[in-house]
From TrEMBL:
Organism expressing this protein natively: Bdellovibrio reynosensis
PANTHER family: EXOPOLYPHOSPHATASE, RETROGRADE REGULATION PROTEIN 2
Pfam family name, one: Ppx-GppA
CDD domains: ASKHA_NBD_PPX_GppA
Protein name: Ppx/GppA phosphatase N-terminal domain-containing protein
Stretches assigned to the Ppx/GppA phosphatase N-terminal domain: 23-305
Length: 306
């Protein structure tokens, strides 16, 4: 029997919703009905002022009212909404959760990095066959990066790092630096990141990396667009290096006008690409798969298992 659910991911760069039909019999399936995205950059407020400002709160409330109406129109039975890095750190996060519920009757769970990693891993293992493989999952968000290790389809370690793309941009702005100085910012996180990677893959190397998040899907498409290479479902490290060099030749405005990137993707795509590059180099992996699933898919799967 099919149940219609909606999964909402309240990230640092956007608020995304996916509506899907789920079934546990005869075998578990999820059929995506529709995906939505609202460019509400909670991270801009939180990483500069420590709170979600009234103006952004109003945009988020309007987004959730719209999502609640959509749930009603499309006969959604259950909705699960989770908030990640920006909301976790906002001093007024409880006000945000209360206001959204008052306006939309959608309850929000603020989850930690471990639960975020678990949900993303759940989505990935439903999409890819991980049997007899050691893999490293990289989720690039606006506020944080989750790096998860897996033996087969069993998650063995996950850690969240406060080095998401929006946070990096705000860090650059605050220090009056620009994209050319990204290596300085990256370098400040390398100690913790390197330790996590070394601990989990030095004695038992990973077979491949897996990348999730909108920026990784965008990098897959840019491989086709900029390098004239297919398919968009994976990147080699050398392809990623080439994409970064080409992207650096475009100003943010040109990425919007020439490459047709959304404005809230155009300014974070180089930090995202360099984060992936850094992690792949540290782990000495040459290939990253891009399965096209993410946190929303994991949330939907979690509703099926419940």
């Amino acid at each position: 029997m099919l149940r219609r659910v909606s999964a909402i991911d309240i990230g640092s760069n956007a608020i995304r919703m996916m509506i899907a039909d789920i079934s546990g019999h005869p075998s578990p399936t999820i059929q995506v009905v529709k995906r939505f995205r609202a460019a509400v950059r909670l991270g801009h407020d939180v990483f500069t002022e420590g709170i979600i400002t009234p103006a952004t709160m109003d945009i988020a409330k309007a987004t959730f009212r719209r999502y609640a109406e959509t749930n009603k129109e499309l006969n959604v039975e259950v909705c699960r909404a989770v908030a990640t890095s920006a909301c976790r750190e906002a001093k007024n996060r409880q006000d945000f959760v209360d206001e959204i519920f008052k306006n939309s009757h959608i309850p929000i769970e603020v989850i930690d990095g471990t639960e975020e990693g678990r949900l993303i891993h759940l989505a990935v293992r439903k999409e890819l066959n991980l049997d007899n493989k050691r893999s490293m999952l990289i989720d690039i968000g606006g506020g944080s990066v989750e790096v998860t290790f897996s033996d087969g389809d069993k998650m063995t370690a996950t850690k969240s790092f406060p080095m998401g793309t929006v946070r990096i941009l705000e860090n650059l702005t605050k220090r009056q630096l620009n994209e050319a100085h990204l290596n300085i910012i990256m370098g400040e996180f390398l100690g913790d990141l390197g330790e996590h990677i070394y601990k989990n893959c030095d004695h038992d190397p990973v077979d491949f990396a897996i990348g999730t998040g909108g920026n990784l899907e965008c990098l897959g498409k840019l491989k086709v667009q900029l390098l004239n290479a297919a398919p968009h479902s994976f990147l080699t490290l050398s392809e990623l290096n080439a994409i970064i060099e080409k992207l650096k030749t475009f100003k943010v405005k040109e990425r919007v006008e020439v490459l047709k990137l959304r404005p809230d993707r155009a300014d974070v795509i180089v930090p995202a690409a360099m984060l992936v590059q850094t992690i792949m180099r540290q782990a000495e992996v040459q290939k990253i798969l891009i399965p096209g699933v993410g946190l929303r898919d994991g949330i939907a799967w979690s509703m099926l298992t419940k």
